[in-house]
Automatic annotation (TrEMBL):
Residues 733-775 have a biased composition (Acidic residues). PANTHER family: MYB-BINDING PROTEIN 1A (PTHR13213:SF2), MYB-BINDING PROTEIN 1A FAMILY MEMBER (PTHR13213). It comes from Cyclopterus lumpus (Lumpsucker). The lineage of its organism: Eukaryota, Metazoa, Chordata, Craniata, Vertebrata. Residues 711-775, 1169-1203, 1215-1295 are annotated as: Disordered. Keywords: Nucleus. Residues 1182-1200, 1234-1245, 1277-1287 have a biased composition (Basic residues). This is MYB binding protein (P160) 1a. Belongs to the MYBBP1A family. The keyword Signal does not apply. Residues 1169-1178 have a biased composition (Basic and acidic residues). It is found in: Nucleus. One of its GO terms (molecular function) is sequence-specific DNA binding.
Length: 1295
């Protein structure tokens, strides 16, 4: 506790009883300490423990002491402690109902009396009174003692004067008290006490809130007559009180500026206005004409929050009126202005208000009114709510159906006058009349289409199949058809367009329709839980309740439209119509075959047919030939499958025609060039079904597209052709439209997209300007010659003979010269622009090619996943490695990196690490061995280890394929041990000698080259996966232990040998005499390697010795355990001599390994006796660092003055010898110099010591030698006395 708290407890009235008894009970006292802790959990635990203790130990002195401590703690100086003591006091009063509340209130008043408390504790006393009243209120007994209620209210009234400390807490507490007391207590006790507060209700929001709570709680007491006496009017909301209420609302808005919440008093006023039937007066005068007249800020935000909170309280008519008024217009302007960064945004709060209202409201009319009201708020025709507004998921089915019908009507006949339109200041200045109206209609229709698509795309929306189909039919009809005559058989022909559709809106409809197709393809089937659907059953996607695909329903609707040329304009030509009809016939035949017996590819082929048929309306010229080829391929595929099932002989076919699978693969790749995610997914599904039939030629066609070397040779691919320019443009427009639709959900102005495009164009212009500056450095020589010709024709070139004055040319000549120069520069500008366009076109084509390759990788991934055991998978190894190698060695952009990452993932994780692999490679042994040799040769030539890792992984994959799996009958013929040995030695079709020779060359290269792309981990994986090859390579590795090219390679050889010898598989393969022979060879190599260690203590040598000792430890331990006949004496001698070569430390990896090895020879590490070091010796040996000394370069050096006479030379030599001896016998002199530098108290100059100061000048020697010995000793003694304390502190030497 702080000193102030101690003072409070000391000055508390009343004697403390039985202090000694209380001091003995530490558990009881610790409760009060825990109540003051900052941790809330600790305080709550202390309250609970205190109540439980007092209930079990009912002692009067402890209970009295508890009240004393809790009342004292209410004014604790620590802010977090006050709520703890208040809660504890309230719970104690609730637990002990026999304690009167009046006595506790009296203690609070006496203890925290504001008149008698010290000035510095005045603020704490205020909070003590407040938390004391809160504790009494929390006891739930206040309503039983009316006088206590009166005392608490009077105490709170006295605290309302101190707003600078307590703010509005006293008034809020009075409001809470009023909400719990009965009406009799209020009428008899509190009404007279609160008369002043109730009469001044319009002064502050808190007092108005007090009046509103009293009106809600005690309507019989506060009747209109009583209100008229208090306020002067029988109602709260009337024309006279509106100005006062407006001021109170402004104060309330300012009070919650930081909290961003709606004050309770405002919502209570709204409820009161509805009760008094004065809502229109309150809304129009107080909100619209009062709050909204203020500058945009807290007053506006309070109005918006009140609008959102009022939605559940209003009737349908009031909702329509409010949602079409000034508050909504101001809200729309706020939404538009808050799009900029660092602006306060109230949109998330409004979304929450609307979502909560729709979720809790069951009235479809009210839901529709709110949705239409917010959707009608538009800026230049574009609604401010996003097109992907998530609140629609809470609509009732009836309201959703009506809302969709309203959207369709607004699309067909845009009625801008029915929208709540607003404009910003800039838009008001730039009015364009008719053109602006047409633009508004376009913007509105774009939003409506996006809104309809988002409703279908949102799986949380509860929608029926008729609604989904209705939206899809509506969008499809207006995207590709137009009505000639209204008919009841086609619902979409009944709606007439008031304004014809423009090309932009048509494009939005087309893109939205294919987006709808994708959403419907992933649309889950709403299963009724009562039907007993299994929980773990796979969910069905893309079908209706009867199991029919959504796209098939749309195809039937399209067939209906095409069969009514009198009612609907036909978008297809006769040839295209014929292709459509044949497609429908193929789908019908597929459905018939599916009924007889469903197959894996039947549904996929149907979906592909229908999807291509739908895209026929978008790009008929491109897909017409694809449709024909697709039909023939499917017919051939189904015919071949039927023949295989019936086991009939195949009819003779023309050998010149390609296989149907090859054509199908070409079709799928052509479809992948379309910018449609739906087509991409369907192509993957179809290819997955035809994977078992894929031939080598079909797979080659896929790999040719991915081959980077063929891209350099050929100028074009499937995607980049001149015929596809229109398609590429459409794809770009589609992407742009999607971007605009995404942005439109958050923005109200379509000009933002244009602004973004302008920004991109500016960036492109800047890049082009940079290119121009680079090109200007190299002037085109042909342009120079043309310029010279033009100037010579007009005699405008100055020569040495004539002058260079411009007066030589007349006006006509100058005009001709200007025209010639203008034409020349214009032509040059066109040429440069053509070069830039060509460069841009090449970049776009390159991006399209990369995107197409990424899509084609889908087919490769599907093939690897479905046909991992096919021999054709081996054809993927080299092409994928080529892609990885080329991508790693080039500076690529993000798109190329994604392509590279995808290819590497397919190769490493799905091909090489797959548990399923080709096991029928017996007839391709030679080809696979050649491939392995080629891969390993390439591996050693690489420079990048990351690329080398992929090549080495491919080599291990080829070895795994060659080895295959051991035959099933081999294990039954042998015993358990024999079967295990045979499994280890089984290598299938691997030519062990040839393969081990390949890896031996790689290992020798790795152990000999300074920089090798191979790594240790690669060979470790080889040894662990193929122990037979490890055994074959052991002799090469053991040889490098002593004869390695470099020291670190000798250490690597030890690591390899250790890993090999620790392997159980290797031990089993070399069991018996070969294993003993290996141990003998390794022992000799280790001895030779340790003999080569010299006395140079470099890190490389030490690392090698550590690795060698690790191998020695395993070898010696294994020989002793297995009792092998291996002579370890040479190795022991080398180990004994190793201590003389390398200086060992006390601890370290090297030392620990050494003693662990020699321990097996009976040598024990000597124990070092710990002796206490002599402190004096240590101080003499290791003097402390001198502080305050000048470096040698800064010291003044003695000048060598030539001495002419021999006597003077002898005297100088003696003097120098004397100086040297003095400095040698005075170790503390230097210390004295440092002390002199750091001594701040002594400012006078001290006498210089012999060696400490600078050497005396030869010119002053005579003066220095005249000093007597006694004077010198006296000066030294004085210096000792002054330096003695500092020398002790710094540990200086003795003089």
């Amino acid at each position: 506790m702080s000193t102030e708290m101690v003072a409070l407890t000391v000055t508390a009235p009343g004697p403390v009883k039985q202090a000694g008894i209380l001091q003995q009970n530490r558990v009881f006292l610790d409760f009060f300490w825990d109540l003051a802790k900052p941790d809330q959990e600790a305080r709550l635990k202390a309250v609970e423990n205190l109540i439980q203790y007092l209930k079990t130990n009912t002692k009067a002195d402890e209970l009295e002491y508890t009240f004393k401590r809790l009342v004292d703690g209410l004014a604790h100086t620590r802010e977090t402690a006050r709520p703890g003591f208040s809660l504890a006091l309230g719970q104690v009063l609730c637990a002990f109902e026999d304690i009167p509340l009046q006595s506790v209130l009296d203690k609070i008043k006496v203890k925290h009396n504001l008149l008698t408390v010290k000035k510095k504790l005045l603020r704490n006393a205020m909070f003590g009174n407040l938390f004391g009243v809160l504790a009494i209120h929390q006891s739930s007994r206040i309503s039983k003692e009316p006088q206590v209620v009166l005392g608490c209210v009077q105490l709170l009234q006295s605290l309302t004067q101190h707003r600078q400390h307590l703010k509005d807490l006293p008034t809020k507490t009075m409001t809470d008290i009023l909400s719990e007391i009965p009406e009799e207590v209020f009428e008899e006790v509190l009404l007279s006490a609160l008369k002043t507060d109730l009469a001044s209700a319009f002064s502050t929001p808190e007092q108005l809130q007090l009046l509103l709570v009293a009106l809600q709680r005690f309507p019989q007491t506060l009747k209109p007559k009583k209100l008229k006496k208090l306020l002067g009017s029988s109602t709260i909301i009337n024309a006279d009180n509106i100005p006062k209420l407006t001021e109170v609302l402004k104060m309330a808005a300012g009070s919650v500026k930081k909290e961003c919440v709606l004050p309770a008093v405002v919502l209570d006023l709204l409820k009161l206005s509805l009760k008094e039937d004065s809502f229109q007066l309150f809304w129009n005068n107080a909100i619209i004409n009062g709050m909204l007249k203020e500058q945009p800020g807290p007053a506006h935000y309070l109005s918006f929050r009140l609008l959102g909170s009022a939605l559940p309280l209003l009737s349908t008519a009031q909702l329509k009126d409010v949602l079409s008024g000034e508050v909504m217009i101001q809200y729309g302007e706020h939404v538009v202005s808050s799009q900029k960064p660092d602006r306060f945004k109230l949109v998330p709060e409004m979304d929450t208000y609307v979502s909560d209202f729709l979720q809790g409201c069951q009235d479809a009319d009210k839901q529709l009114a709110v949705m239409v009201g917010f959707s009608s708020l538009s800026n230049q025709g574009y609604p401010v709510v996003p097109s992907v507004w998530r609140v629609v998921q809470h609509l009732q089915p009836a309201a959703l159906q009506q809302y969709v019908e309203w959207l369709k009507d607004m699309f067909l006949q845009p009625q801008l006058d029915k929208l709540l339109e607003f404009s910003t200041r800039k838009q008001k200045d730039n009015k364009e009349g008719k053109e602006q109206k047409e633009n508004s209609i376009i913007r509105l229709r774009r939003w409506v289409v996006s809104r309809l698509s988002s409703i279908i795309d949102n799986h949380q929306v509860k929608k029926e199949e008729d609604l989904i189909m209705g939206v899809a039919r509506f969008v499809f009809f207006h995207a590709f058809f137009s009505a000639k005559k209204a008919s009841s058989s086609i619902q979409e022909t009944k709606g007439t367009l008031s304004v014809p559709l423009d090309d932009k809106t048509k494009g939005v409809l087309v893109n939205s329709f294919f987006g709808l197709l994708l959403s419907m393809h992933h649309l889950p089937l709403d299963d009724d839980p009562a039907e007993g659907v299994a929980v773990n059953q796979k969910r069905t996607l893309g079908v209706t309740a009867d199991g029919t695909m959504w796209i098939y329903h749309l195809a039937q609707y399209t067939q209906l439209l095409l069969s009514q040329p009198k009612l609907v304009n036909q978008p297809l030509s006769p040839e295209q119509r014929k292709a459509w009809d044949s497609m429908m016939e193929s789908v019908a035949s597929l459905k018939k075959k599916a009924k007889k017996g469903p197959t894996a590819g039947n549904g996929a082929f149907q979906q592909l047919f229908l999807l291509v048929g739908m895209h026929l309306f978008k790009a008929p010229e491109e897909l017409l030939d694809i449709m024909r080829d697709l039909q023939s391929c499917v017919d051939m595929a189904l015919a071949k499958k039927a023949k295989k099932k019936k086991k009939k002989q195949a009819t003779e076919q023309q050998e010149e025609e390609p296989e149907w699978v090859e054509v199908m693969v070409e079709i799928l790749m052509a479809l992948l060039s379309q910018s449609s995610r739906h087509i991409r997914q369907v192509c993957k599904t179809v290819f997955s079904s035809i994977c078992p039939h894929v031939t080598a030629e079909a797979l080659t066609a896929i790999l040719d597209v991915l081959d980077p070397e063929k891209d350099d040779q050929e100028d074009g691919t499937v995607v980049v052709t001149d015929d596809n320019k229109a398609r590429k443009k459409n794809a770009n427009e589609e992407d742009d439209e999607e971007m605009e639709d995404d942005k439109s959900g958050e923005s109200d102005d379509s000009d933002e997209d244009d602004g973004d495009d302008a920004m991109e164009e500016d960036d492109d212009d800047e890049e082009e300007e940079d290119d121009e500056e680079g090109e200007l450095a190299v002037v085109d020589q042909s342009f120079r010659l043309e310029l010279m010709k033009v100037l010579q024709q007009q005699n405008a070139l100055a020569t040495e003979e004539d002058g260079s004055d411009d007066d030589d040319l007349d006006d006509d000549a100058m005009m001709k010269l200007d025209k010639g120069l203008a034409a020349l520069f214009s032509e040059q500008k066109k040429k440069s622009q053509a070069k830039k366009d060509e460069k841009t076109e090449l970049q776009k084509e390159k991006a399209l090619v990369r995107d197409f390759k990424i899509k084609v990788l889908d087919l490769v991934e599907v093939f690897v996943a479905r046909q991992a055991g096919s021999p054709l998978v081996l054809r993927l190894v080299e092409p994928l490695l080529t892609i990885i190698d080329r991508g790693m060695n080039s500076n690529s952009d993000q798109q190329e990196q994604d392509f590279l990452r995808r290819a590497a993932d397919i190769f490493r994780n799905q091909l090489c690490r797959s548990k399923v692999y080709c096991r029928t490679a017996g007839d391709r042994q030679g080809e696979l061995h050649d491939l392995l040799e080629k891969l390993m040769a390439k591996t050693q030539k690489l420079s990048d280890s990351s690329v080398c890792l992929y090549y080495f992984s491919a080599s291990l994959y080829v070895v795994k394929v060659l080895r295959g799996a051991p035959p099933a009958g081999a294990k039954e013929e042998h015993s358990a041990d024999g079967a295990a040995a045979s499994d280890l030695s089984f290598m299938g079709n691997v030519d062990v000698d040839r393969v081990s020779g390949i890896f031996r060359d790689a290992l020798s290269s790795f152990m000999a080259r300074r920089k090798s792309p191979l790594t240790t981990q690669m060979f470790t994986d080889l040894f662990s996966r193929f122990p037979v090859l490890c055994v074959k390579l052991l002799d090469t590795i053991v040889h490098h232990i002593a004869s390695g090219a470099r020291v670190h390679q000798q250490g690597l050889a030890c690591v390899f040998v250790l890993r090999a010898m620790q392997s159980r598989e290797v031990q089993q393969l070399l069991s018996g005499a070969p294993w003993t022979e290996l141990c003998v060879t390794v022992s000799g190599q280790l001895a030779s390697s340790l003999e080569q260690v010299d006395q140079t203590e470099t890190k490389v040598v030490k690392d090698k010795v550590v690795k060698t000792l690790e191998l020695c430890q395993f070898l010696v331990k294994h020989v002793h355990q297995q009792k092998l006949s291996v002579d370890l004496e040479p190795l022991q001698k080398v180990l004994q001599s190793l201590t003389s070569t390398i200086a060992f430390k006390k601890t370290g990896k090297l030392e620990d390994n050494y003693w662990a090895v020699v321990k097996h020879f009976g040598v024990v590490k000597p124990k070092v006796e710990k002796t206490k070091p002599d402190k004096e010796a240590v101080q003499q040996k290791v003097p402390k660092k001198k502080k305050g000394f000048l470096p040698e370069t800064k010291k003044r050096k003695r000048r060598n003055i030539p001495i002419l006479e021999p006597a003077a030379a002898a005297a100088a030599a003696e003097l120098a010898a004397a100086d040297n001896s003095t400095s040698r016998h005075q170790p503390g002199a230097d210390k004295g110099q440092a002390i002199k530098k750091h001594d701040k108290k002594t400012k006078q100059k001290r006498p210089a010591d012999g060696a400490a100061g600078s050497q005396p000048n030869p010119a002053k020697k005579s003066k220095a030698t005249t000093t007597t010995q006694s004077e010198s000793n006296t000066a030294k003694m004085k210096m000792k006395k002054k330096k003695k304390p500092k020398q002790k502190k710094e540990g200086g030497g003795q003089m």
